[in-house]
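Let's practice the habit of predicting before peeking. Look at the sequence and jot down your guess about where helices and strands might fall. Then scroll down.
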Amino acid sequence: MPQQNKITVAGDGNITIQDVHNSTITLNANDPAILGKLEALQQSNAAAFQSLMEELKQRHEAIFLKLQGIQSKLPKDLSLNIPKVHPDDVVGREDDLKNLHDLLFDNKRVVVVNGLGGLGKTTLAQAYIGQYYTEYRHVLWISQLSEDLINDTINAEGLTKQLHINTEGQDPQAIFLEIISRLKSIGDSPNLLVIDNAEASLARLYDLLPAQPDWHVLVTSRAKIERFFIKELDFLSPEQALILFKKHCSRIEEEAAIQSILKTIDYHTLTIEILAKTAQKQRTPIAELESAIQNDLQANIYIPHKGEKIDKVRAYLASIFDFSGLNSDEAWLLQQFLCLPGEYHTYASLEELINPAASERRAIFSETLEELVAKGWLLHNTASDSYKMHRIIAEVASEKLSLSTETVLPLIKMVTEKLSVDQTKDNPVDKFPWVPFGKSILLHFEQEMVYEITHLQNELARILKEQGDYKAAKEYCTKVLAFFEKAFGENHSDTAVLYSNLALVLKDLGDYEGARNLLEKTMISMEKNFGFNHPNTAQSYSNLALVLQALGDYEGARGLLEKTVASAEQNYGIEHPQTAIYYSNLALVLQALGDYAGAKANFTKALSIFEKELGESHPNTAVLYSNLATVLQALGDYAGAKGLLEKALKSDEHNFGAQHPTTARIYSNLAMVLYDLQDFENAITLLEKAYQVYKNHFGDAHPQTKIIKGNLEGVLEASKRQ
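Done guessing? Here is the structure:
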């Protein structure tokens, strides 16, 4: 049985924690600095912290409540703009709300609210938050906007900031796992996680999600997701439907006429709201609306649902759309919403993205928004002052409105700008939230071969590559390249840049030969158009060198990187960050060739620049500390390697915390240097930390977890022989 931390809580508030290596920590509940000390304990020894809080909760409730202040540093709303609505604003779902509460609180279920689009699944989740918000310690709302819930989670507005997660230089998988780890470590309970519009693939993440009883998980979906408890949301009853209609339309009093048309539209929630608002605003006789809907139903736009149910919603809404009396400004604004992700957007963000001034509509922008809300074609969350278009409405509007790039050009340009990355200063992770915006626009214009669309595709492809979605990045890069080859020819410098972009994606996909062929074309074009010493040519040398290195052609890679470094020194100077990047790339190749002295010299130059430009605590500087340390270790300078790795560890613990895989990698590297120095005890401690982090994040089957476990076993065996 594994050893556990020994925790003693005295009556005077003294707390003693003795870990498995007999290292002792003493805290006092009355110490004004207790919260800071607890936070340090939580980061350095999560197991001890969790054990302490559980023991205090059971045996010393007063002290537990006092110490629990560390958790109160997290805001209640873990994502910004939680879209809650008042339950009184929702008609006919009182029993559903109570049932949800019983399922989550009493039955400890993980619930999927399932049903046809437009029945009010999202609204029910919002009303649930509105009614039971005070019963939760923390609330998190995640909207699934793409097939990749991991990226949608990372992009939940404000989430990484609220959880104090540093995303600098981290891949999406690592960030997602850190988010999950932080959520599970929250000691307060109960907490609420809502995943809106989830896909069936959510089932694969079931075991990873925060769970009952500390976390209540509520999901809305059109799919019946495996392993989740399914709560069906059905159509309204005739009585409920009538109440909803009258809520939005007071002009028509004949209940028999109202009931007739409500029956025609199957008591469908969203359709009722829009129908009632249209009847109220346009004064359209209800018999005329009913006749139009009956005629449109003959278009047979049917989608099977739940066996006997038939989804005729698009036909209903298409009929009502024609009666809505939309003016040109309203049609224009609906076209903008067609190109936005189907989530709520604040007024400020809409004004920035749509840029109504560019279309000479700034004066009427707010008024037009409100008019579309009044007519039912847009939804408004008053609590967050945010607006959205329902997915079914978007389908109808897309059929009814002719969409052109010219109409939404300011939006296209703004999203393209949001996705654009300056490699010398921007963190690509900061661009991830804009990926759904780019994809949403391109759904409507994928086949259009105009510069504005290809520019957006190119910027989106670059961010998708950073996200690790290489397949989608390749698809967009290929489309952009085809446009440039046709427009400018194969030898144009802009086409060469596109060859390079596609090549780097192919490299990530493991197609090194394909990448090399494209990069050789890039290099020839750059040499022809700019000469041998131009920065663009140097970049092409560097990119090709990375591929040659992956192919094992280290000599070829070295030759190109030596050219790259010479060009950078001439064009940027020897103290420029771009030159430092090339020094570092060259050092890695020299290290692979066994030229440790050359690698050391180049790593040292790069490190000097990074320390000056970025500082010792920057994550990129920490990477160089680690890389240089591996060279010093190979040269037998174990003391020098130890010093650098201790700097890297200090930086990574500060930036990422003790439970992050990046930090664990430094634990492992430093442990092996300590092993070389015969410091077996500390080497074992660090390897145990590293192993625990990798096991928690990736599981025992992960290759890196296996390597660390093997190293740990080797050091333990060596220590026994001493």
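How did you do? The chain has 33 helices and 13 strands.
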